[in-house]
Amino acid sequence: MELWLTLAIGVLFATGTYLVLRRSLLKVVIGFALISHGTNLLLLTTGKLKRGAVPILVEGYQGPYVDPLPQALILTAIVISFAVTAFMLALVYRTYQSLGTDDLDRLRRPSG
Amino acid sequence: MTLLVVLPILIPLCTGTVCLLCWGRVRRQRVISVVSGVVNLVVALTLLLHVRADGILVSMMGNWPPPFGIALVADLLSTIMVVLSATMGLTVLLYSFGDIDQRREQGGYYPLFHLLLMGINGSFLTGDLFNLFVFFEVMLIASYVLLALGSEPGQLQESFKYLVLNLLASTVFVASVGILYGVTGTLNMADLALKMAQTEQSGLMTALSMLFLFVFGAKAAIFPLFFWLPDSYPEPPTAVSAIFGGLLTKVGVYALIRTFTLLFMQDIAFTHGFILVLAALTMIIGVLGAIVQNHFKRILSYHIISQIGYMILGLGFYTPLALAGSIFYIIHHITVKTALFLVSGITERATGTQELKEMGGLLNTYPLVATLFMLAALSLAGMPPLSGFFAKLALLTAGVQEAQYGYVSVALLGSLLTLVSMSKIYVYVFWGEEQPKRARAVRHLDLLLPTAFLVLITVSLGLMGEPVFQLAQQAATQLFSRETYIEAVFAAAQGAK
Question: With CB atoms counted within 10 Å of each terminal CB, which end of chain A scores lower, N or C?
Fold first, then answer.
C-alpha cells in the first residue's frame, strides 16, 4: 500500500510541477491544486498506513488505534489550499479581465 | 498570566473581525484600528517586561499537556518581535490614514491589515511547527490580498508571481512538516528538540533541515530565492510596502533563527556553515542589485535582501555575541526600513514619481523630509552613532572572534556599497535642480509624523542603545540554552494539570 501511495504522490508532484511551469495562468492554478493533493497524500502516508480502531478510548479494547494527527493536519491543509485556490482563481480572472491575456510572458510590463 | 501570551494574536483577530462587521464605514474602522493598535502595543510591552522579569511564558491551548496540545511560547526573542510588530503596526496604520486612497479603504484595507498582524504575531509566538505553518498562511493570505487590493495592472502581475512563489514554499513546508512528523512523531517544538537531539538518523535530520532552510529562505528572500521581492514590494501603496518591507521577510528570518537554534543542531558545522555562505551571497548580491536600480522603492527592496544577509550572518557564526548582533540588527532594520519606505511615500506624493532621475531639488521644499531620510539612510549604511553602526559592530566583532575574516570583509564591503546607493538616492531626490512641473508643495504632516517617530527610534537606538543591546544579549543567551525553552514548555504542562 505504501508503495502505491508513494507512486501516486510522485505522479501528482511531477504533473503538478509540469503544470506550474506552463505559461498559462490557469494551468499554474491547476498545477498547484495537484501538488497540494500530493502533499496531503504524503501527510497521510507519514502517519503510517495500518489498520486500527477509531482513536477514541473504549473500555475493554486493547488493540491498535489509528494516529489521528495526520488527518487533522490534512484537514487544515485542505481548508487552507481551498482558500488559496479560490483566491488564485479570482486573481487570475481579474488579471484576465484587466489585461486581456492569461499568458505569463505577455503579462510582463512593457517598460521593464 | 498565560492570557497575556494569547492577547497579541487575539487583539488583531478581534479587531479585524469587528472591522469586517463595519464594512464600508471607514471612519469607524479607523477609530477601532487606532484603539486596537495602542492596546496591542501596551500588551506587547507588558509581555516584554514580564518575560524579562520572570522568564519564558508558556500558554497551553485548551490545557492539553505537550506534546498533544498547541503551545504558545513567549521567550525574549518572540516578545521582542511582537513589540516590533506592534510598534510598526501602529505607526504604519497612522501613516495609512494619509496614504491609502478611499477606494482601498472601503475595499477592506483595515480588516486585512489587522489579520496580517495577527498572522505575524502568531508566527512569533507559536511553539508548534504545524501551527507555525497555519499562522504563516494567515499572514500570507492577508498579504496576497493586500498586495492585489486596488487591482492596478502592475499589482495584478506582481501579485501572481508573489503568490506562486509563496505557495510553492508553503507546499514544501507542509510536506517537510509531514516528513518530520513521520520520523519523530511529534510537532511540538520543545518535544521535537528533545527527540531530535536523541535521534540516530542525524543525516535525515540534516536533509530535512535543508528543506526547512528552503521554506524559510524563500519567505525571508535569501539568496537564491529573493527574486520575487524587488518586483512585488514596490507595487502596492506605500503603507503596504512599508509593512511588508519592515515585517514580512523578518518573519522568515525569525523562523530560521528559531528552528536553527532549537531543532536542527545535528551537524552545526555543515548547516550553519552553509547558512554563512548564503548570508555572504545574499548581502553582496542584494546590494549590487540595489546599486543598478533607479526606482526609489525598488532600491529599498533590494536593500532588504542585502540586510537579510546580515541577519542570518549572525545565525551562521552561531556564537552568543553574533546572535545578539543579529537580534539587534533585526530591531534596527525593521525600524529603519519601515521609515525609509515611509519617506519614499512622501517624495512620491510630492513628485508623482518613483524614478530617481525625474525627481530633484526637494531639499528646498521639504528640508525636514530630507533630514529624516538622511538620518535613516546613514543608519541603514551603519554610520556611527546611529543604530545600524552598533548592530554591525556586534556582528563584525563576533566574526573577528571566530576568525572569519572573509565574511567580515564581505559585510564591510556590503555596508560601503549601501552607503553609495543611499547617497545616490539623496543626490537625485534632494539635490539638484527643482523640476518645476514635478515639485509641488503638498500637505504631508499626517505622513511626516509617523516617519519622524520611527527615525526618532533609530536615533535613540544608537545614542542610548545599551539597554536594548543588553536585551538582545539576554535573548541570545536564552536561545543558546535550549534546556530553558524545553523545561518551560513542559513545566507549563505540570501547571496545567
Answer: C
